């Protein structure tokens, strides 16, 4: 896992666009992520021996590495899938002002409820 204060991009997928929009809004308000993007896409996957083809929504979040576990726990509790997709990759390069903004707009302290 990268250093706790490294900015990361978190990807979450879900079958419901509105569910994803509400989740991202909540995570931004709680300072668990600085921003999020929503993108519709088509997916093909195997689940328990069956092939599925579906429309889903991809949420891309910008946060710090130390918050990924809290985001993952939240998604696992609230997501409609039994095994939701949550992955994170470190942002190792980019506009330094943007990367600093991600850190400034997130909080690695106790959960904030607003």
From TrEMBL:
Superkingdom of origin organism: Bacteria
InterPro entries given in the database record: Ion_tolerance_CutA, N-reg_PII-like_a/b, N-reg_PII/ATP_PRibTrfase_C
SUPFAM superfamilies: GlnB-like
Pfam families: CutA1 (PF03091)
Family: Belongs to the CutA family.
The protein's name: Divalent-cation tolerance protein CutA
Organism this protein belongs to: Pseudonocardia eucalypti
Lineage: Bacteria, Bacillati, Actinomycetota, Actinomycetes, Pseudonocardiales
């Amino acid at each position: 896992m990268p250093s706790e204060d490294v900015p990361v991009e978190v990807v979450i997928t879900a079958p419901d666009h509105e569910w994803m929009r509400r989740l991202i809004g909540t995570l931004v308000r709680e300072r668990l992520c600085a921003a999020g993007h929503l993108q519709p896409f088509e997916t093909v996957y195997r689940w328990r021996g069956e092939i599925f083809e579906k429309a889903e929504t991809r949420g891309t979040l910008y946060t710090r590495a130390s918050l990924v576990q809290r985001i993952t726990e939240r998604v696992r509790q609230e997501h409609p899938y039994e095994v939701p997709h949550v992955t994170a990759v470190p942002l190792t390069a980019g506009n330094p002002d943007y990367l600093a903004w991600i850190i400034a707009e997130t909080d690695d302290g106790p959960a904030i409820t607003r």
